[in-house]
Write a structure and sequence with these properties.
- The complex is a heterodimer.
- Chain A is mainly alpha-helical.
- Chain A has one domain: ABC transporter involved in vitamin B12 uptake, BtuC (Orthogonal Bundle).
- Chain A has 15 helices and two strands.
- Chain A has a two-stranded antiparallel ribbon.
- In chain A, helix 3 runs parallel beside helix 5.
- Chain A starts with 40 loop residues before the first helix and ends with a helix.
- By secondary structure, chain B is of the alpha/beta class.
- Chain B contains 17 helices and 22 strands.
- Chain B has a six-stranded mixed β-sheet with strand order 6-7-8-3-9-10, with helices on both faces. Chain B has a six-stranded mixed β-sheet with strand order 16-19-20-13-21-22, sandwiched between helices. A four-stranded antiparallel β-sheet of chain B has the order 2-1-4-5, covered by helices on one side.
- The chains are: A mainly alpha, B alpha/beta.
- Chains A and B meet through helix 7, helix 9, helix 10 and helix 11 of A and helix 10, helix 11, strand 18, helix 13 and helix 15 of B.
Chain lengths: 408, 521
């Protein structure tokens, strides 16, 4: 039953039946690349750029940049933008933009601070209510985009204005501080060095075991020829990253916020790469009409996309507010949306939709964070920092476009 | 004036110098000769209908005359008014008085009639500002000269299609046009609107303008044209004065003689049809923009398991809207009842249709495929649910599923990871079929499944359709190509102006019968 062409002479009762794949490789199409052969060189270019920048800063700061302490600080500094960038990727993948992130985050912070500081609530209920508010903000914007059909840019531009306004109205323009110690301690705390190393090793072990299982199954299904090469391709970067993590964390440990980011990343990656919902989001971004004609409820998927953005407002807002131990309605999260979108785009998310990786966006956030951090170490004024980040964004996207044009 | 056209079109040429003379025009595209050694004279004050099946070379020919193809891209000579005529582009052709009105006139509905008429050509005052008074005065003059009383200050979008078309023609004629070429001008018009257009065309003929009129509608052609010219496979194979010919003769010219009906070559007779898979009753479909415009009117149809039912109609007859409406993908209002496998169902969106086992191959692949995404992603798009293990998508299962269909349907692609946009048209179309096979929809609506597909892949798709029919799939095939329907369908429903006007089956299912019925004879 390997008759490839359903011809008139083929059996009239069935299409050539399903080949039983489990008992060995069923003659694969001649030119099929081996499993996982396709290497995303783009992601490696980004790593290369990052390495160059780090090297340059290391020279310019007389070795201050690549110290355990500074790298830990850098990870912490990039966390807030990274959290926002995760949801930015998900939205841009479906061709939606959220420019209200900074204001929404500020408003969530105000809610949290009002409840804990002014109303004296315990921390846990306050967090729950702040999260609820955040999800409602996402739902509100999702309603206008998905149900009413107003472009997301407009809806969130309006949101940017009135969320910021509300975050000033509610506390009457005052800064609310300090937050209860439980919150502040979490946001500024570190996992002890010993536990950090154990956590990293556990995570690495889990990842390697999962990859080994996946690759083995691929071999069994006839999708890969041997286990070693595809496994090594996944294992080596993970081992390098884990080694770097251990180097940074072995003296003072890992910031708790970075662990929170890790958890969020894991969940978001699973959602995007391994669920039907993620596949639908990529399809909608790739061609909304095609998605609709394939039976996907585009409105509902986009609405849920904004609900997830709401969850991200909550997590980001609480983390940011706790980190600075207070809610500053006027300036908290200013331009966060732009940093998040920039990180997503530097990380390879396509503005045209349908393409984008969460891990890429994290690298993008790290790259921009490195620029800030390195220039601060060199005592470069923030005026220059802004300018430099703008240029980097432009160059990164230009390289992306040019490389794609050559590939096409 | 019309007497000047009395010169015989037969070889030997008319006594008077023709307005436009085509001499041995040949136009080649890679792999195909679109226009093959065509010589033709067009006289002033004459309406010439240009007929031919899809792909006969009509569009290419009128585009050559209108300067769309530059003078060096084809062989042969053109003369206009006795002078050599070698337009390098459309603008130059228009300057020479040759104007093409495309099938779909492009207007900016949000702008006024006057703004549309002088788009990018606005008169200006001394200071370089737009001279609105002058613009509207000139627009009114042009429209009055043409004999319409449209107000140039109203929004273009507020006019009906016929009026918009008249405005476009009036604008084109303001440049002292001598030869007017109309590409299926009545495709989107109602009967009344078409009659209004004809009145104006006769007026132009009386003023000595030569008119080339491309159409599929024989009734119309015989009502308006002085002469009928037929192209087939790029060759001129019929040139008659309308009064001297019959519709049968014209249809014979279009189809050619002695072509065997290819019906059996794609897999022979179907199995005997089984139970009713799809039953549509009283389907009415309204235009999404103009709710009063009925695109499909009280259509009934049934498709049984193992049966391939065709729907044939000329452009604008409502065949595509009908299929879109059944699938729940039509943006306008839809009435009527649909039963799938004997059960009455409500289909408001494509997801409903798919849930009931109905899939659709849409007319335009750019609308249904994610061209930048891989073959695998496109194949599994409608069957994601079945690829989940423990609630998570299984990437291995996706690859296997895609490879299975690539093999079964013989889709030629370097790998299932290749972007589907890099495949040929025929293979892209097979990816669409694969998507629905994977989703296990046992009833399929296919709209122009061989659009833009080469001959070899076409035959393969026909064989595939016959095979699916033998496997008890129910297929509804909507097409504007009579040959295709005759080749693969068991019976064919013919629509004209949104209404079913007949059904052909068995020995009566021939191309010429289809064309006659659809054209309204």
């Amino acid at each position: 039953m390997t008759e490839p062409i359903p011809t008139a002479t083929a059996t009239p009762t069935a299409l050539p039946a399903q080949t039983p794949h489990d008992d060995g490789p069923p003659d694969p199409p001649a030119a099929r690349p081996a499993y996982g052969e396709k290497v995303e060189w783009r992601n490696y270019t980004l790593l290369l750029v990052l390495a160059v920048i780090w090297f340059v800063f290391q020279l310019l700061t007389d070795g201050l940049f690549l110290t355990q302490r500074n790298l830990g600080l850098l990870a912490l500094q990039s966390t807030i933008v990274s959290l926002a960038a995760i949801s930015a990727v998900m939205l841009i993948v479906t061709r939606n933009f959220d420019v209200s992130v900074g204001s929404a985050v500020a408003l969530v912070g105000v809610v949290l601070a009002m409840l804990t500081v002014r109303a004296g609530w315990p921390v846990l209920p306050a967090i729950l209510v702040a999260m609820l508010c955040a999800v409602l903000m996402g739902a509100w914007q999702g309603f206008w985009v998905a149900r009413v059909g107003i472009p997301s840019f407009i809806v969130t531009l309006a949101g940017m204005l009135y969320f910021r306004g509300l975050s000033l109205i509610i506390p009457d323009g005052e800064t609310i501080a300090p937050l209860p110690g439980a919150l502040t301690n979490f946001a500024t705390g570190y996992l002890t060095a010993a536990y950090s190393v154990i956590l990293i090793l556990l995570a690495l072990g889990g990842y390697l075991a999962y990859q080994l299982r996946t690759v083995r199954r691929a071999v069994r299904l006839g999708l890969a020829d041997d286990v070693r090469r595809p496994f090594a391709r996944r294992a080596v970067p993970a081992i390098v990253a884990a080694a770097a993590g251990i180097y940074i964390g072995e003296s003072i440990g890992i910031p708790l916020l970075v662990i929170l980011l890790g958890v969020c990343t894991l969940v978001a990656e699973l959602l995007m790469r391994r669920t039907r919902y993620g596949a639908k989001l990529y399809a909608i971004g790739g061609n909304p009409e095609a998605a609709r004609l394939a039976g996907i409820n585009v409105e509902s998927a986009v609405f849920r996309n904004f609900l997830i953005a709401g969850v991200a407002y909550g997590i980001t807002g609480i983390a940011l507010t706790a980190r600075v131990s207070g809610a500053v309605g006027g300036s908290a999260g200013l331009f966060l949306e732009l940093d998040a979108i920039a990180a997503a785009i530097i990380g390879g998310t396509s503005l045209a939709g349908g393409r984008g990786r969460i891990l890429g966006a994290l690298l993008g956030a790290l790259l921009m964070g490195s620029l800030n951090n390195g220039m601060s170490l060199m005592n470069v004024s923030t005026f220059y920092q802004e300018t430099a980040r703008g240029m980097v964004l432009l160059v990164a996207v230009a390289i992306d476009q040019l490389s794609r044009r050559r590939a096409a | 004036m019309t007497s000047t056209s009395a010169g015989s079109p037969a070889p030997g040429g008319p006594a008077a110098e023709p307005l436009m003379r085509l001499h041995r025009i040949t136009k080649r595209f890679p792999g195909v000769v679109a226009v093959d050694d065509v010589s033709l004279d067009l006289a002033a004050g004459e309406i010439v209908a240009l007929l031919g099946q899809n792909g006969a070379g009509k569009s290419t020919m009128i585009q050559i005359v209108a300067g769309v193809y530059g003078a060096n891209t084809y062989d042969g000579d053109l003369t206009l008014g006795g002078e050599p005529y070698r337009p390098a582009g459309v603008i130059e052709a228009e300057r020479g008085g040759v104007v093409l009105i495309p099938q779909q006139v492009s207007v900016v509905p949000e702008m006024t009639v006057g703004q549309n008429m002088f788009l990018n050509n606005e008169p200006t005052t001394r200071f370089g500002l737009v001279d609105w008074e002058g613009l509207y005065a000139r627009a009114r003059q042009v429209l009055a000269d043409f004999g319409t009383d449209v107000d140039p200050r109203v929004r273009m979008g507020s006019l009906d299609l016929a009026a918009q078309q008249l405005v476009v023609i009036a604008r084109a004629l303001s440049a002292d046009a001598r030869l007017l070429i109309l590409d299926e001008p009545t495709a989107a018009l109602t009967e009344n609107e078409a009659h209004r257009l004809f009145v104006h065309l006769r007026g132009l003929r009386a003023r000595g303008v030569a008119i080339v009129y491309v159409s599929h509608r024989l009734a119309e052609v015989f009502a308006i044209a002085d002469r009928v010219v037929v192209l087939r496979d790029g060759r001129l194979c019929g040139d008659h004065r309308t009064v001297d010919t019959t519709r049968d003769e014209v249809v014979r010219d279009m189809l050619g003689a002695g072509i065997p009906e290819p019906r059996q070559q794609y897999g022979g007779a179907a199995a005997s049809p089984g139970e009713v898979a799809l039953e549509v009753a009283g389907l009415s479909v309204r235009d999404p923009e103009d709710g009063d415009r009925v695109r499909v009117d009280m259509l009934d149809l049934t498709v049984r398991r193992g049966e391939t039912v065709g729907v044939f109609g000329l452009v604008g007859s409502g065949t595509t809207p009908a299929a879109m409406a059944i699938f729940g993908a039509w943006p306008g209002r839809v009435d009527g009842t649909i039963r799938v496998d004997g059960r009455a169902v409500r289909i408001n969106r494509p997801a409903d249709a798919i849930a009931h086992g109905v899939g659709m191959i849409a007319p335009d692949r750019r609308r249904t495929l994610m061209l930048d995404h891989s073959v695998a992603d496109n194949v599994v798009l409608a069957s994601l649910r079945s690829l989940c293990r423990h609630g998570l998508l299984d990437p291995h299962a996706r690859t296997l599923r895609a490879e299975e269909y690539v093999r079964r349907l013989n889709i030629r692609t370097p790998s299932v990871r290749a972007p589907v946009g890099t495949l040929s048209g025929g293979n892209q179309q097979k990816v669409q079929v694969a998507r629905w096979l994977a989703a296990q929809t046992r009833t399929m609506l296919l709209v122009d499944p061989t659009h833009g597909v080469d001959v070899g892949a076409r035959a393969e798709i026909y064989r595939l359709l016959r095979l699916l029919a033998r496997q008890r799939y129910a297929l509804l095939l909507v097409s504007a190509e009579a040959e295709e329907l005759v080749a693969v369908c068991d019976r064919v429903l013919v629509l004209r102006a949104g209404r079913a006007v007949g059904e052909l089956t068995g020995a009566g299912l021939t191309e010429s019968n289809l064309l006659h019925l659809a054209a309204g004879d």
